[in-house]
Amino acid sequence: MSVLIKDMQMPKNCSECPLALSGKYCRINRTYTTYRVLQARPGHCPLVELPEKHGRLFDSDEVKKVLDDLPDSEDKWSAIALLEWAIEKRWCIEAEGDG
């Protein structure tokens, strides 16, 4: 399960992260960082930033099913390309669990 923390700003590094204990221990990953100040978030950071102004989040798999059921047309393939672009831009939250 994931948690969305509304109005939380994306920290630039572990020492700015409100989820890190003293900027050295990640409460999410349960890992320690080095004692030097990191200039950026480490690659294993689980935080994902959403756009500041975003619309409703959607189930891209369900949208794809609807598009697949449409008859072939240029509009259908344009819609599928747009959906794939939105997924690539991470404008949807990844699925969790078994469904």
What brief labels describe this structure?
99 residues, three-stranded antiparallel sheet, single chain, mainly alpha
Q: Quote the beta fraction.
A: 5-15%
Percent helix range:
25-40%
Principal-axis shape equals elongated
Biggest beta sheet summary: 3 strands, antiparallel
Strand order of the largest sheet: 1-2-3
Return the average pLDDT rounded to an integer. 78
Write the layout of secondary structure elements.
Elements: E1 20-21, E2 25-26, E3 31-32, H1 60-69, H2 74-88
Helix pairs in contact: 1-2
How would you describe what is shown here?
With 99 residues, this protein is mostly helical. It folds into 2 domains: 1-49, no CATH class; 52-99. It is built from 2 helices and 3 strands. It has helices spanning 60-69, 74-88; strands at residues 20-21, 25-26, 31-32. Strands 1-2-3 form a 3-stranded antiparallel sheet, with no helix packed on it. α1 packs antiparallel against α2. The protein starts with 19 loop residues before the first strand and ends in an 11-residue tail after the last helix.
